[in-house]
Amino acid sequence: MPTARSTARLEARISSDLHAMLKRAAEMQGRTMSDFVVAALYEAAWHAIAQAEVVRLPLGDQECVAQALLAPPQPSPALRRAFTRREKLLRVG
C-alpha cells in the first residue's frame, strides 16, 4: 500500500565536471547534493510546465479577448436554454 508520501528513484549519468559543480553548489548552500538536485529539478519542471500552460496570442487576438471581457455579447437563445436546463437539473439533485 502506498504511503502518504511515496518516493521514486531517479538516476542519471553526468560528467565529472558537472558532478563537481553540483557538489560545490550544494555545499555553498549548506545542502546535500541530493537535496540540491531535487530542488533544482523541481524548480525547472515547475517552470517548464508553467511556460507550456501560458496562452500566447497575437496583439489583434489579445484585443478581441479584452473587448469580449469588457463588453461580452448577449447570450444566444441556445445558451439561455442550456443555462435554464442546467438550473433545473441542479435543483432536482
From TrEMBL:
Record's keyword annotation contains Ubl conjugation: no
InterPro entries recorded: Ribbon_hlx_hlx (IPR010985), TacA_1-like (IPR014795)
Keywords: Toxin-antitoxin system
GO BP annotation list: regulation of DNA-templated transcription
Family note: Belongs to the TacA antitoxin family.
Name this protein carries in UniProt: DUF1778 domain-containing protein
The organism of origin for this protein: Azospira restricta
